Amino acid sequence: MTRVVFLLLPRLHLLDLAGPAQVFSTAADFGCGYELSYVGEQEDVPTAQGLPIRAEAAWPELDPGDLVVVPGWRGPTFRDSPRLSRESASRLAAHHAAGGTVASVCAGADALGRAGLLDGRRCTTHHGLQDELARRYPKATVVRNVLFVVDDRVVTSAGIASGIDLALHLIAVRHGPGTAARVAREMVVYTRRNGDERQAGALRHRSHLSDVVHRVQDLIDSRFTEPLPLDGLATASGVSPRTLTRVFGEATGMTPLRYQQTLRVERAEHLIGRGATVESAARAVGFQDARMLRRLRSRTSGIRPVPAEDPA
């Protein structure tokens, strides 16, 4: 049995808590063996949405396989963060030191910082708090505009709903991507959103339950700018090229190559939207020149091909 402990601080956002709690509760319903606990600095914890929550004052005994999650709270700056006692900060640090995983949603990253868990690590938070987090914890590396970051069993996520993505990622790591997909499907949410926002556009192809296809997608997601021959993808997934093509098509409606091209085009569109030329965007995502990108943009997005002599 794995225990998931939520540390509740005043003015917490309900979805910061309810999203991850629902993920682990649903996983428990599927037999994954989770037990949820809620502890706080006080027994009656006010929330940002006005609904008070009852918490336990005493922490349960934790094992290295257990997880502690700190939901975020309402406050325009970290200066408005609720008080975190030395005992709670020590509990967070001690659990991590013992081999456990500690996570935060949104402003909850400040609690991890006060426990000394952000120093020397990559982390993230809500986009409106990223600059302040970087100033507050200069020894941390704040990764901007991503859904979540994992660094040495310290897991931080962006605002509000990204806590669901964080929890689904942890389910996928512990129980496989198929289980995470099953939980997401039960919750009627996108499954397996990646931490890096560059893959956000491909979410519509992640609602299946195939472990093999999720693992291949993970590989393509992380290396989509590189040549990825079908034989190599098949070897990495433990199936034949023919089987991979079949199951990938059944799960996503496309071939692995078409999926990789989709990621490339979506990333290129992101770069072009930020001022890059078509030529530079094409090379950045792995094309030798802009001709293929122009053809794919026209085919997938209904965008008229940009003439070769047009630098835009």
Automatic annotation (TrEMBL):
GO MF: DNA-binding transcription factor activity; sequence-specific DNA binding
HTH araC/xylS-type domain: residues covered: 214-311
Pfam family membership, one: HTH_18
Keyword field contains Protease: no
UniProt entry keywords in alphabetical sequence: Transcription, Transcription regulation
SUPFAM superfamilies, sorted: Class I glutamine amidotransferase-like, Homeodomain-like
Classification via InterPro entries: Class_I_gatase-like (IPR029062), DJ-1/PfpI (IPR002818), Homeodomain-like_sf (IPR009057), HTH_AraC (IPR018060), INH-QAR (IPR052158)
Superkingdom of the organism of origin: Bacteria
Family matches, as PROSITE patterns: HTH_ARAC_FAMILY_2
Protein name per Swiss-Prot or TrEMBL: Transcriptional regulator
Phylogenetic classification of the source organism: Bacteria, Bacillati, Actinomycetota, Actinomycetes, Streptosporangiales
